[in-house]
Queue: 2 jobs
Job 1
Amino acid sequence: MSNLPGNEGKSKYVRETFNSIAKRYDLINTLMTLGLDKSWRRLVVKLSELKEGGTGLDVCCGTGMLTIEQARAAGPAGKITGLDFSENMIEVAQQNIRDFALKENIWFVRGDATDLPFENSFFDCATVGWGLRNVPNVFKAVQEMTRVVKPGGKVISLDMAQPTAPVFREFYWLCFDRVIPAVGNLLSGNKKAYKYFYSSARGFMRQKELADLFAQAGLA
Ligand SMILES: C[S@@+](CC[C@H](N)C(=O)[O-])C[C@H]1O[C@@H](n2cnc3c(N)ncnc32)[C@H](O)[C@@H]1O
């Protein structure tokens, strides 16, 4: 377990936010992505080229849905670790794998994405789903993922892109700003958390900026 960044305002706010919505997270995530979240996670794992018997890391694993996809790809000889700093999200993740055939191959660790408690070059791949935009120092998180992945291994971030097409862009942000907080409020009673999703998505870097940052961290 690594040190938790309790003194950083954003980290504290983010941890409390996810702790407060953990029980409803999976349902609302699926509604927000119109059910596409599962296929996106499968695509990420396919792109990660994680093989049978492989060793994978899922940073900001939340309720463990991407971690589970990694475990499916790595099979019975695989070793998969999910890391998150929200105790309630990890608790739901533990519940989510209770009846999963490969649960013995999954470890959930509480820790901070910017200070990974793993050795250099330990994993075959690292993924992060909708996580980087929550981290105060995105570069440090990407550097850490790069450090713990073996040379030649994949580091993959899954997130919402910033839309550019004029009419679609307005509709997209309207949904994020109005519809999602209303639905989130209805299902979890926590409108503020879903307003945070809007601001974190809106304020997150564009694809090109993120790709440049990956390159600066040493990724090809
Ligand atoms: C939107 S959820 C994503 C969950 C999951 N990856 C998925 O596929 O649905 C973001 C997660 O990132 C975690 N998180 C945010 N900042 C973090 C940090 N600095 N270190 C570890 N976890 C963090 C939150 O606790 C939350 O569970």
Job 2
Amino acid sequence: MSERKLQVVTGGTSGMGLATAKALGVYGPVLIGGRNEKRLNDAMAELKEAGVEAYGMQCDVSSPDSLKAFVDYALTIAPIGNVVNAAGVDYADMPKEPIIKINMLGTHYVLEAFLPYLDDSYVVNFSSITGNFYPGPSAEEKELWDSTQTVSEAEFVERQLKLTAQPNDPRMLALGESYTTYAMSKRYVQYYTQANAMRVAMKNGSRIISIAPGSFYTPMLAGGNNEAMQASIKRGTVYQRFGTSEEMADLIVHLLALGHGYLTGVDIIHDGGKTALSFAKQMM
Ligand SMILES: NC(=O)c1ccc[n+]([C@@H]2O[C@H](COP(=O)([O-])OP(=O)(O)OC[C@H]3O[C@@H](n4cnc5c(N)ncnc54)[C@H](OP(=O)(O)O)[C@@H]3O)[C@@H](O)[C@H]2O)c1
């Protein structure tokens, strides 16, 4: 990782994004963004306390205008290094439209905003193992997702809402439409990451990957699950516990710091063995 280039972390004001920003601070200046002003100020104080050369700005990844201002600010600090897009919302108590706008279109808008400035950079998106459990994309989903760059935001949202109401596997709906939308949104992040491997590589050999967290104990996960659900989530992992934000940050920083030049267009599962337990009978 080039010293003094700017490490950008959207969603860097909380959870795994904040831990990643702190860990990246060893390599140079870090810019974090998020919508909530208080959360941003608290995160800035935490980063500065940890000795990070931290910069912060309110930004909303579902708004291209907000991202333009964010990128303009970034360019005043230092040349762009890596971009970690940890901004995202969960399905608990969340209407479907913001999930589509933030998790899906936000992923696209962040890449569009930073693409011109990538230079031997990594773009890291956050998917979820929920995306791996989603049985898609179907032909209709692919058709819409392949046209992300060309359809209007209103059309994308309208068509995605229809797809969400009739998922590829109707059994998904037993888990609720918000959950289905979230699962689809994270499957989209994986697909979009694959679909942009070539385009990103054309920016001086840059790379794009997504990371699929299992269950990491962050404000997002802590907020939406009661004690019984949390106990059940833990039992679903090899280590019988949640991952920590620091463990996620360690993985990302190892990937970025060592510079793995052949690694792009893939989704990396980091889930304490949840996928292994779900898909394979364990040999004892
Ligand atoms: N925790 C898990 O177990 C888990 C599992 C699978 C996937 N993930 C994914 O991992 C990523 C990080 O999650 P986390 O658990 O660290 O969550 P978190 O602690 O809730 O942090 C989410 C961050 O995203 C920001 N954010 C949300 N909407 C935004 C928007 N429109 N524009 C800019 N920033 C926005 C939040 O700040 P503001 O709200 O102030 O904007 C916050 O900084 C998310 O994409 C999440 O879906 C998490």
